[in-house]
UniProtKB/TrEMBL annotation:
Key words of the record: Hydrolase
Alphabetized GO MF terms: hydrolase activity
Gene3D superfamilies to which the protein is assigned, alphabetical: DD-peptidase/beta-lactamase superfamily (3.40.710.10)
Organism from which the protein derives: Armatimonas rosea
Superkingdom of the organism of origin: Bacteria
Protein name: CubicO group peptidase (Beta-lactamase class C family)
């Protein structure tokens, strides 16, 4: 439902698809308690033939998995008192005895001094194996002294959730987060019902066999052994993410306490300055933030495949952008989406003034 109010914002996305090579995109804007704009452009797949995209198309969320799946699961455990941010990780994952001093907080704010990730393309590993590798990984900085955005951090926290709950992360999220919110099209490993509706992220052809398979190589290596990852692997669409954004704008009503949402979305890092502007797996104002001219106190995240969400509680607004930019055959669309995110935030802010 295109609207005149957000026409200029939508035009930015349309230009990215029509002129900058982004294969397909969905834009959903929430404002004052309702979906104020919902529109789609382009294609779910380009090769060997063009496959139409709709507003119901599912996208590989990539690193949006971190706050929406892993972060939400962790929020429930924090609220229930089963975990605290300053708990040592070795309390839950014995492998972390090799890295004493690392806490849940350090991982949740990306300052544990561990690497960004590892080389997992064409490897199949279990979650326990990768946790062991993370615990033995190279020391990149002293704990709590440097911001290093890390897939390893979210993978470790996903493993913590599994250890505490006794459930695989995707099953816990389905039962405790997605089903209660009516997010029926949000899942890891889309099955036969949902995979045909997934936008392609394949570097090659868009084939039935590639649809619904996670793009991230680490998450892919885990899925090959029947595991899921806390850093990537979640699939969803604009409508379900709008349901999630509404939850956050309503300060968790129906799922979380307001103080839990506040904890998750305000700075929790021991660092100061922009590097410390990280909540519990949410970005608030780091170098990765796409806030544009939105107010301080807003928060969100981005995903490598071309996805993003930014939530502005003070303005009762959220902006959801889903693209399959990585399905393009060159780098230009990927760079276009990086710039588009901040431009979109700024234009939406101007539109609601």
């Amino acid at each position: 439902m295109p609207t005149n109010r957000f026409h200029a914002a939508a035009a930015l996305v349309e230009e990215a698809v029509e002129k900058k090579g982004v294969p397909g995109a969905v834009l959903v804007i929430l404002h004052k308690g309702e979906v104020a704009h919902r529109q789609c452009w382009g294609y779910a797949g380009l090769r060997p033939e063009k496959r139409p995209l709709t507003c119901e198309t599912l996208f590989d969320l990539a690193s949006l998995t971190k706050p929406i799946a892993t972060g939400s699961a962790l929020a429930l455990l924090l609220e229930e008192g089963k975990v605290t941010l300053d708990d040592p990780m070795e309390r839950y994952l014995p492998a972390f005895a090799a890295r004493p001093g690392i806490t849940v907080r350090h991982l949740a704010t990306h300052c544990a001094g561990i690497p960004a990730g590892g080389a997992y393309a064409n490897r199949n590993v279990t979650l326990s194996e990768i946790v062991e590798e993370i615990a033995r990984s190279r020391k990149m900085a002293e704990i709590g002294t440097k911001f290093i955005y890390s897939d390893y951090s979210a993978i470790s926290l996903g493993a913590l959730v599994e250890r505490v709950t006794g459930q695989r992360l995707d099953l816990f999220c389905r039962e405790r987060v997605f089903a209660p919110l009516g997010m029926n099209d949000t899942t890891y490993r889309p099955g036969v019902r949902l995979a045909p509706r997934c936008a392609s992220t394949a570097a090659g052809d868009d084939t039935p066999g590639s649809r619904g398979w996670v793009h991230d190589p680490t998450a892919s290596s885990l899925q090959h052994t029947g595991c899921v990852s806390g850093n990537a692997g979640l699939f969803s669409n604009g409508d379900d993410l709008a349901r999630y954004a509404q939850l956050m704008l309503r300060r968790g009503k129906g799922l979380l306490r307001p103080e839990t949402v506040q904890l998750m979305t305000t700075p929790q890092s021991p660092l100061s300055g922009p590097d410390g502007q990280r909540g519990v797996l949410w970005d608030i104002g780091s170098a990765y933030a796409i806030r544009g001219e939105f107010l301080e106190g807003s928060y969100g995240h981005t995903g490598f495949t071309g996805t993003s969400i930014w939530i502005v509680p003070q303005a009762a607004t959220a902006v959801i952008l889903l693209t399959n930019a990585v399905h393009s055959s060159n780098i230009t669309p990927k760079n276009a989406v990086i710039a588009l995110r901040r431009e979109l935030s700024t234009q939406v802010w101007h539109s609601i003034q």
